[in-house]
Amino acid sequence: MRAWPWIATPLALLALCGLPLAAVLDDAPAAAACTSTPDGDRVSFSGPAEAVGRWNSTQVGNAAIIVATGDHNRVPARGWVIAVATAMTESRLTNHGNLGPRNDHDSLGLFQQRPSQGWGTPAQLQDPIYASTAFYKALQRISGWPSLPLTVAAQKVQKSGYPDRYADFENDAEQVVAAVTGKASISGLPGASLADCGTSPAVSADGWTPPVRATVVSGFRTPSRPTHQGDDLGAKRYTVIRAAAAGKVVWAGCDGDTGNCDIDGSPETPGCGWFVEILHAGQIATRYCHMVRKPDVVYGQQVTVGDPIGLVGTSGHSSGPHLHFEVHTGVTCGKNRCQLRSLNAIDPTPFMQQLGAPIGQP
Predict the structure, then answer these.
(1) Contacts within 8 Å (CB) and 24+ apart, 79-83
(2) Domain parsing of the chain, residue ranges
(3) Measured between alpha carbons, how far is 198 from 206 in angstroms, rounded to an integer?
(4) How far apart are CA 145 and CA 143, in angstroms?
């Protein structure tokens, strides 16, 4: 690949604790696997990493490093997806050293960055934290990068001879990022965590947790929207949505024509877009609408509280990214579908407050 020119700046090295050693540096000595930074910051991973789809535990562990590094550098979650998709394309999330005759010029590491193009020394580019930080610095120099298509943003950084290939891994990257945000975390850095993406969600004594951390931007059955059967939580696109409580998935799919779900919706577009319904104990059910893509769970799947079920989007009847969250009580279920209707919808805000898992808090 041709690299985006990068001027090296002093970096505070993060520590990697609890990761499989192979996911840190291919041949790193054991002593290097857990060290403190000068200011005490640490990256930890409650693992070991688990495989996600076709990506094995070592590959997912490397993705966790990319995500945690992005969070440390205050990069929005969209950047994590772009970075992980890029590393999937360039290296299959493998921290390659010099491959000899099989090497592409002098490309190295997760992002196949080249020392000859100013990315850093060979040793630096085989350090996943350094390589990830370099990628994010280049990405953030691109004007309007969060709104660009993934393949365009990645190509502006990588300058690849195959500019369209990054899009092939966008869905995979979203799934892996959703998985590792529940594992990777940062301690010792004031205000820094992966909580904005639902990491390590706080679970109440009653076994409930907010599906996202975001303010309520439109409430339940307001005077201006008397038929609005839930709360709209103003989370950003690609924020991880988590199951509010343990239960069984009784719907996971598109509300209507799939073609309407695979694009951003509008106030004129009908329905929930991509959405999920979960049946909990006591015949209580929750609904999660307007996901960015096909949900990460399937019909009949058992989930535990806090499990990732999808990503915030704006599919269906929506004017912008948010999560529409509903709670229904006294729900009855037939052979193929549970009855979540306006008659059994209740206001989610006092319900969640009573269960010790208040929503509407960013």
Answers:
(1) 79/136, 79/139, 79/140, 79/145, 79/146, 80/177, 81/150, 81/170, 81/173, 81/174, 81/177, 81/238, 82/139, 82/145, 82/150, 82/153, 82/154, 82/173, 83/132, 83/135, 83/136, 83/139
(2) 16-197, 216-354
(3) 19
(4) 6
Q: Which of 232, 327, 325 is nearest to 285 (CA)?
A: 327
d(CA 107, CA 103): 7
Q: How confident is the model at residue 184 (pLDDT cuts 50, 70, 90)?
A: low
Question: Tokens in use for 210?
Answer: 């907010």
Task: Report the run of H or E that residue 109 belongs to, with start and end.
Answer: none
Q: What does DSSP assign to residue 76?
A: -
d(CA 3, CA 200): 36
pLDDT digits 0-9 by tens, 48-90: 668 888 999 889 989 988 988 887 777 888 899 999 999 999 9
Q: Rounded to the nearest 5°, which phi and psi values hold at 98?
A: -70, 125
Q: Take residue 237 and report the two structure tokens written for it.
A: 């696109």
Task: Name the CATH architecture for the domain at 216-354.
Answer: Distorted Sandwich (2.70)
pTM greater than 0.70 (yes/no) = no
